Amino acid sequence: MSRLPVRKTYKLYIGGEFPRSESGRVYEAQGANVARASRKDLRDAVRAARGAFPKWAALTAYNRGQVVYRIAEMLEARRGEFADLCSGPQEVERSIDRLVWYAGWADKLAQVLGSSNPVAGPYFNFTVPEPTGVVGILMPEEPVLAGLVSRLAPAIVGGNTAVAVVSEESPLAAVELAEVLASSDVPGGVVNLLTGRREELAPVLAGHMDVNALDLAGADGEVEELERLAADNVKRVVRGAADEQSPWEVAAFLELKTVWHPIGV
Amino acid sequence: MTELERKRDRAPVPAQWDYAPAPEARDLVQLRERYGHFVGGEWLEPKETYATIDPSTEEPLAEVGQATNEEVDLAVRAARDAFTNGWSDISPAERAKYPFGIARILQERSREFAVLESLNGGKPIRESRDVDLPLSAAHFFYYAGWADKLEYAFPNRKPRPVGVAGQIVPWNFPLLMLSWKIAPALAAGNTVVLKPAETTPLSALLFCDVVRQAELPPGVVNIVTGDGRTGAGLVKHEGVDKIAFTGSTEVGKAIHRELAGTGKRLTLELGGKAANVIFDDAALDQAVEGIVNGIYFNQGHVCCAGSRLLVQESISEPLIGKLKRRLETLRVGDPLDKNTDVGAINSRQQLDKIKELVASGEEEGAEIYQPPCRLPEKGYWFAPTVFTNVAQSYRIAQEEIFGPVLSVLTFRTPDEAVEKANNTPYGLSAGVWTEKGSRILAMAQRLRAGVVWANTYNRFDPASPFGGYKESGYGREGGRHGLEPYLEFE
After folding, report:
1. How many structural domains is chain A composed of?
2. Which CATH number do you get for residue A224?
3. Does the pTM exceed 0.80?
4. I want to staple B124 with a disulfide (CB 3.0 to 4.6 A). Which of A134, B181, B311, B343 is the partner?
5. A-chain residues within 8 Å CB-CB of B270?
6. CB under 8 Å to A147, separation ≥6 — which residues?
7. A1 falls in which pLDDT band (50, 70, 90)?
């Protein structure tokens, strides 16, 4: 007699945990019932991201690089599973390699993006990149897995925490990725993934007063409205590339801080 | 405190210092009765005009244009024309020579500009002469050198100019802000249309003569004057590829909204409510100088002004005592007098705003201190002011006053200092005063602000990136980073 496989319940990923939507709602996508996050779920996710931010930002760059590398390790172990959820093994490999690439950037960003500034006076003056805070991301619909990795990695490797609204049509890779993140060394709250209706969640994310940057990688048509909402607290609006890797993708989520100190005896 | 310091602290300060007037020669500046807009290298007769005044006397200085949308359009067309027909073909090394030349001419005509800046803006000649002008020239000189080295600033990115930049600058540092905007834009190969602030257009209009002397091709720099309507016209103009704005957070947000969905590039340098944090081991006399420079420099019309003083509780009393005594020696008055420390408030509108916020501080329960000083009868004036007994929730601790008004709060631990310093929607700048090196670095890391001055305050340099976190804006001006807003990459 054939065995009936155990079905998986697809839930949200907030603050390192896997809650159902507080609204109790689901919608059907890719043959599964997927949690349909509410505005309150989104606000909870932002709170979790804000809570996780100070510690994550204060980690040494070496340490943060290792955590991102650990995600690649965990993804490598589940290659087969992910291949079935995206365009195939090549996309999975590209995603893993991209995580490794970004992991290596963690402790080089300050050297490439920062500077020591020769001011005309007796002052020591330097500029360092720092994370902007909580980043809200509208994930691209395609590529399903590489899109998630291409937007998440540059946001978190620089010390930001993220709240992402994932693909509405193909959300399962994101939920699987949440399991990878949970079993990596990524502290709870650093990445929060929400499944649900884009139309319902995007404006709340764009207008949230405790989100510092908004990545419109997956925005479609609604860009004007979202950018306008982002003005309420002067969010950095980023048009992230869905399937590319570059240190400038990281830089888009970074602030530059300049410090002065007199030189004298 | 040593015995000597104790004695000095008790020494009486004369109730009124007497200084002989030391006026700077005003006739260095030859003003025309009426100015138009500078478009395509020529003066465009304005359709509408308004009077620009000397805020220290309320006397009119000249009639200037209130640019209409049609006039803005002509300026943008001139800039586009200059960009496509010539300017972008000039070799970078040749292009560099123009801002280099501008820097030199600004140095040569420095005193003339300094006097004009004080006349039209109300700031003390000591500051316009020693800060605004040298920094303006330095800014052009610094960015000139980048013009033919962009591929070293942005390796592997194939930098190219954005096109036509629309630039809107404030009234607190009229020529310096113009320099912060125009110098990197030209170095990166753009052409510009710049609108000076409504109340301080004259130094930008005199700058057109520098543009002429530097033999800049017509249309590379265009200046249109007017109020917010002119600015709005520039922001909305479809022929502008990039907007750079320095001014209030409120207007910055409106511009961000206006440009939503257009794909037009935008950088914003907005307001601030900076904390200047004084620890108990700080060198107090130096800190007092830093506090004074932090909030009374340029009448407090400084977006990065240290307007919230956070003092460690244990030294609050002696520090405030020293500060009040120092305030008594500040000379408030004629901006063109070389002895003046605090000049005129820039406009009636700004004076009203300061008065309104100061009244709210008194109403909410803060204790006000103003040194005895005689304010001139005509013109816009406000005495240097310190509020003690201020709670975090008071408006004077939350809102940008943009005037010579300091709000003092206290803290006990470094954690509390960080918490209070960061407890604002702004994040432009911060100060920290302590003799302990490790504490400076720890505080510099934890303060959420784009510029942190440690054991100093209000220092600026063209090589030093400047700009805010959070609602203080985005993008940087100064340094290699200041080129980026004016470049496109592959």
Report:
1. 1
2. 3.40.605.10
3. yes
4. B343
5. 234
6. A139, A140, A141, A167, A217, A218, A242, A243
7. confident
The complex scores an ipTM of: 0.95
Instruction: Write down the number of H helices and E strands in chain B.
Output: 17, 19
Running along chain B, 490 residues long, what does each successive block of 10 average in pLDDT? 57 63 93 98 97 98 98 98 94 98 98 98 98 98 98 95 98 98 98 98 98 98 98 98 98 98 96 98 97 97 97 98 96 96 98 98 97 93 97 97 98 98 98 98 98 98 98 98 96
Model confidence over A48-63: pLDDT tens digits?
999 999 999 999 999 9
Using beta carbons and an 8 Å cutoff, which residues of A are at the interface with B? 115, 117-121, 123, 125, 127, 132-133, 212, 223-228, 230-234, 236, 248, 255-262
- In the block, tokens 């209009």 appear at B205
- Residue A30 lies in domain: 26-262
Distance from CA of B376 to the nearest CA of A (A): 36
* Nearest chain B Cα distance for residue A232, angstroms: 7
Give A125's contacts in chain B (Cβ within 8 Å): 461, 463-464
Q: What digits encode the pLDDT tens for the residues A5-44?
A: 999 899 999 999 999 999 999 999 999 999 999 999 999 9
Residue contact A234–B449, C-beta within 8 A: no
Nearest CB to A234; choose among B268, B464, B466: B268
Mutate to test the interface with B, among A115, A125, A135, A258 (most CBs of B within 10 A): A258
Residue A56 lies in a domain: yes
Angle in degrees, 0-180, between the axes of helices B249-259 and A223-230, rounded to the nearest 10: 180
Residue in chain B lying closest to A222 (CA): B261
Alpha carbon of residue B112 to chain centroid: 20
Check if B304 is active-site. Answer: no
Residue B164 Cα distances to B91, B186, B244, B255, B298, angstroms: 18, 10, 11, 17, 32
Distance from C-alpha of B433 to C-alpha of B439, rounded to nearest angstrom: 9
A234 with B471: Cβ contact below 8 A? yes
Q: Which residues of B touch A236 (CB under 8 A)?
A: 474
A186 assigned to some structural domain: yes
Domain annotation covers residue A103: yes
What ranges make up the beta strands (E) of A109-240? 115-116, 123-131, 134-138, 161-165, 191-194, 213-215, 236-238
pLDDT, tens only, B287-325:
999 999 999 999 999 999 999 999 999 999 999 999 999
Nearest CA in chain B to A125: B464
Contact yes or no for A227 and B473 at CB 8 A: no
Domains in chain B: ranges and CATH: 26-270+469-488 (3.40.605.10), 272-454 (3.40.309.10)
Examine the residue annotation and report whether B303 is marked as an active-site residue of this protein: yes
Check CB contact under 8 Å for B479 and A261: no
In a domain, A20, yes or no: no
The region that residue B86 occupies, defined by phi over 0 for left and psi between -120 and 50 for alpha, beta otherwise, is left
DSSP secondary structure string, B71-129? HHHHHHHHHHHHHHTTGGGS-HHHHHHHHHHHHHHHHHTHHHHHHHHHHHH---HHHII
